[in-house]
UniProtKB/TrEMBL annotation:
The lineage of its organism: Eukaryota, Metazoa, Chordata, Craniata, Vertebrata. Keywords: Actin-binding, Cytoplasm, Developmental protein, Differentiation, Lipid-binding, Spermatogenesis. One of its GO terms (cellular component) is cell cortex. This is Profilin. The keyword Secreted does not apply. It holds the Pfam family Profilin. One of its GO terms (biological process) is cell differentiation.
Length: 122
């Protein structure tokens, strides 16, 4: 768990454009994301992608409008906040950004880490 938290801090939080980050392991365990949010995002990718595109997603009691959603990534926005989720074969990487942060930097960092996970942790 410490290695994962270090990875999230080093690759995402230290960019200063990612507020919170988590990794959801699709097979066995969930770290360090709350179970219901992990299930929500997992379901969004595997069962409800079209619904997410049309209706958005409620996450932590806020409605997020879908900016982009495909089988690899979901970008959501709520006023001055946003959520980025990137799916690899084994994980879903989740990051949020808030006011004053650049969404494009958040997206780039999460996508880059997702590509690294595809190569290293599958």
């Amino acid at each position: 768990m410490n290695q994962i938290q270090s990875l999230l801090n080093d690759c995402l939080i230290k960019t200063k454009h990612v507020e919170h980050a988590a990794i959801i392991k699709l097979k066995d365990e969930i770290v360090p994301c709350a179970v219901r949010y992990a299930l929500l995002l997992s379901s969004a990718f595997f069962k409800n992608l079209l619904h997410v595109r049309r209706e958005g997603l409620y996450f932590k009691e806020k409605h997020y409008k879908c900016v982009r959603a495909d089988e690899c990534s979901i970008y959501l926005k709520n006023e001055d906040r946003g959520l980025i989720a990137v799916k690899t074969d084994s994980y879903i990487l989740v990051a949020t950004y808030s006011e004053g942060m650049y969404p494009s930097v958040c997206v780039e960092a999460v996508e880059k880490l997702g590509n690294s996970f595809m190569c290293l942790y599958v």
